[in-house]
Amino acid sequence: MLAVSKDPQTFCNGGGVRPDQPAMPYMVDLDDPLHKRRRGLVSRGFTPRRVLEREARVREICVELIERARERRRFDFVTDVAAWLPLIVIGDMLGIAPADHARLLAWSEAMILGAGATDPACVLRATAAFTDYIAYQRAVIADRHAHPRHDLVSILVHAV
Questions:
Q1: In 3D, which of 65, 144, 70, 145 has the Cα closest to residue 105?
Q2: Which residue among 48, 86, 112, 143 is least packed, with the fewest CB closer than 10 Å?
Q3: How far is CA 149 from CA 41, 48, 76, 109, 146, in A?
Q4: Is the peptide bond before 86 cis (omega within 30 degrees of 0)?
């Protein structure tokens, strides 16, 4: 891994991380120096203290998801646990209301299925999901400008 990190000519993300999609202006599709600059902003939300503060909540989420799945006796681990865990953890970090988690998951699934899709209906669903997500996130950003919280969006909105 160290060799990979020291060879940006061979191992780069600037051309995009998916072979069927062009690069997007997201951190995962950036190389240094832009990646380092953006990582510097985001890393403020991942200090050792902040990560340690999250441990109890991550454990609580895991127990809740597994218990909810167990109550049904039969469940799909990926659909009922694995898909929800990162969504809830990241949603919590971004200050997303728990009532919005299902909507975020639906938008995420539609956008993933639409990436590289050739079916017009699938592309339309992905486009609608992306449009709805952007409107939602703009509202969150506006709220954090006016009312900062102890979340990653507030950190990014108020970064200098």
A1: 65
A2: 48
A3: 16, 19, 35, 28, 10
A4: no
Give the span between the Cα atoms of 2 and 11, in whole angstroms.
12
Six-digit token pair at 150? Answer: 């102890």
Regarding pTM above 0.85, the answer is no
Burial class (CB in 10 A: 0-12, 13-18, 19+), 37: exposed
- Domains (ranges, CATH) in the chain? 32-157 (1.10.630.10)
Is-contact 127 114, C-beta < 8 A?
A: yes
Cα separation of 96 and 90, whole Å?
A: 8
Residue partners of 154: CB distance under 8 A and separation at least 6: 95, 144, 148
